[in-house]
Each structure stands twice: as C-alpha cells, then as structure tokens.
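Appendix B, example 12.
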Amino acid sequence: MKQIIKENKKFPNEEDGSNRQQSENEERTTEEINNPFIILGVPRSASQEEITKAWRTLTKQYHPDRNPGDSEAPEKFRKVQDAYNFLKNK
C-alpha cells in the first residue's frame, strides 16, 4: 500500500519535462517524492548531460546562501544533491 503525503515542494514536474511548480498541498506518494528523476525534473531517458544541466540549475536555485530567509532551501538543496549523486553513477 502506498502512503500518501501532502507536501508543498516546488520541484520540477517529470511528466511534461517543464519547470512548472507543484501546486500547494498537492498529494504525492512517497515513491514520487523520493524519485531522483522527478526531483531533478528530467525524464528517465535523460542523458548524463541533461541530468547535470538540471542539477546545476536547481542547485543554484535552492542554494541556502542564495535563499537566506527560506527555511526550506537547505532541505530542497540536499534532495537535489542526493538525487544527482544517485543518478550520476548510472
């Protein structure tokens, strides 16, 4: 059984490949939340270059030094880093 979590994360959407932000309180499963492709906003067929480009864009966007007032920035930054570290060796 999949656990449903309501969260307000603003990560890119994998389905259409756009950087559309997730709507507030959108229901997502734990599987979707931990999917590195969804976190980086790239399709499963993405090349290493596409993954690296998405990672660079998101790390700049969510870097804690660039978002000093955002308490969620460090967590988003860490998730982007973890997703990239997982995918870069694939």
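Strands lie at 4-7, 26-29. Residues 48-62 form the longest helix (15 residues).
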